Amino acid sequence: MGSLMFSLSLSRLVLWASGFILVLVFLKLAHLLLRRQKLARAMDSFPGPPTHWLFGHALEIQQTGSLDKVVSWAHQFPYAHPLWFGQFIGFLNIYEPDYAKAVYSRGDPKASDVYDFFLQWIGRGLLVLEGPKWFQHRKLLTPGFHYDVLKPYVAVFAESTCAMLDKWEKKACEDKSFDIFCDVGHMALDTLMKCTFGKGNSGLGHRDNTYYRAVSDLTLLMQQRLESFQYHNDFIYWLTPHGRRFLRACQVAHDHTDQVIRERKAALQNEKEREKIQKKRHLDFLDILLGALDENGSKLSDADLRAEVDTFMFEGHDTTTSGISWFLYCMALYPEHQNRCREEICEILGDRDTIQWDDLGKMTYLTMCIKESFRLYPPVPQVYRQLSKPVTFVDGRSLPEGSLISLHIYALHRNGTVWPDPEVFDPLRFSPENVAGRHPFAFMPFSAGPR
Ligand code: HEM
Predict the structure, then answer these.
(1) Which of 25, 120, 402, 427 has its CA 20 to 30 A from that of 284?
(2) Which domain holds residue 183?
(3) How far is CA 127 from each of CA 115, 124, 314, 346, rounded to the nearest angstrom?
């Protein structure tokens, strides 16, 4: 009798729980559908490529490569078009300077639909933070990027670069082509570890290499997640093989940053080391973070500290690695520009064999080539915002508060109305006279506005 009562109440409990879950699923679905309707209605006046009923534009983007696909759509739909990753995340994708100015000069918040995918990995650091806390962290860290802090780093850059060139000298003897991307990545991470995180001169260790590989994995998985609507929900994603791979790579990245923080904290326990830091005229990034107090006079929490270290560790080497690699690719494709850069550097160096801070301002042709390579291959090709108030664009079309915006930097930089023959590598686009007549929001490799 007792066991019958027990199984009856258990089955009733299961029934209740299933009903409850069903209601939750229904409410979530209704919320998503209403949101979709709102986003879609807001973009009514913007024609765009046809959407798949389930995948939106994700399938086409995955099949053909998102960057060039969007450039071809930009030819068909001037200024902007709707871009759907699945059925529930829909952006107005913009690639025209006046459109970019209308949004990026105002400081709207980042679109959490995209940036929240970063949370598990880099936490709430500068890239993801919003509001007063973003402002507090930003103010706190600005002195770490003062010119006087940066100047001595030039010697570190030169040293790490020489190590990379020595490696290439040996590889070149084999008379076989080789992929430079990974070596550039190690060089960028090595300089970052030495400058920003105060690592000694020992070069990258095994742990740094593992971190480097984990970050490569994480960036690819992030892009894949954004483009696959079935991965947008955290709970579902963590259950998939890709989600689990993401979590494993996060663990590797966190172990690395924890170790960096632990080592510096341990060094600070040492009296002599503390005195050395107190005597420094300018503190480095990690000194600032560890010494920082919030508005209540308490230290940054461990989570805040790790988020900033993770953010800078990622942002500081991933962008520079692709920027430098694409620049070298352009130099290889266009030897005439490479020779002009070489001549310029040789003239600046004279009989010295290494670059100094004051030389940087004299490298005018090289700077134009770097900018032209950033135009064609921006290291961050797309950034996202959510409107905090309505916006009206130059052609009179508008979007309401809450709409999602994707600024497609790659397509903006290939917009034929601003850049004649956009596919041609022409550094003279960045000569002072050519820059003077150009829209200030036509070239945005570093985004624009307060972020
Ligand atoms: C070629 C080099 C670089 C490029 C092209 C680049 C590009 C960008 C872009 C486009 C953003 C805006 C992201 C967004 O709105 O979602 C950004 C933000 C950021 N970058 Fe970089 N970056 C570069 C180098 C670096 C380096 C070396 C560091 C650190 C040492 C860094 C740290 C950051 C941080 C912390 C943010 C977030 C800023 C905020 O939202 O307040 N970046 N970067």
Answers:
(1) 120
(2) 122-333
(3) 8, 7, 10, 38
